[in-house]
Amino acid sequence: MAFFEGNNMTAGYGTGPDIINSCSINVNRGEIVAILGPNGAGKSTAMKAMLGLLKLKSGSILIDGKDITSLSPQDRVKSGISFVPQTRNVFADLTVRENLEIGAFLRTDDVDKVIDEIYELFPILNEKKSQVVGELSGGQRQQVALGRALMIRPSVLMLDEPTAGVSPIVMNELFHHIIKVKNTNVAVIMVEQNAKQALSISDRGYVLVTGQNKFEGSGNELLQDPEVRRSFLGG
What we know:
single chain, alpha/beta, six-stranded mixed sheet, four-stranded antiparallel sheet, 10 strands, 37% helix, 26% strand
């Protein structure tokens, strides 16, 4: 049994067709799992279902053996799940420190201690702590978003397209920081379009096609799989 599991998830929007069909994704603590696939494959839908933002028609969500399928998104956060959306993931008019403090909304103590831990993980945030986030570079804003998500000391961190719209250099830097987060014993699930780079840092990956599990395996296995390479990795 994995630490966090989405089992046989089927879901869609409103009365429309199902977007994911019997889709299963799991991750252990201290592990990075990538969710990959073409546009419209159901990657973000699967993540929304695991977050509780989309109600399952069938299937289950478990964390540390506890069934949380019926919990609200807020209660899933309280159970240790944190999320960084692709857009609107920082408060641009507030300082770095103020953004981190907002991320501590569930904490009743140790806020300064946790902020110091975030500064240790992301040293640039300590340098820029009094700066308004809207003045930062794209990569630095993403570090603010990661730091804020870590303020609740989550056991599971979900990232939706963390490298969208950044340069290759910044992408590599962000992936380096995601590895650092993993090494704090957090379970990391990320939806990514940069498939090759994501698999190179992932312990395991899932490739979804039309809402179903098409391929899964270690990052290296998927990188070497001829069909995965031909269909999703450009060669």
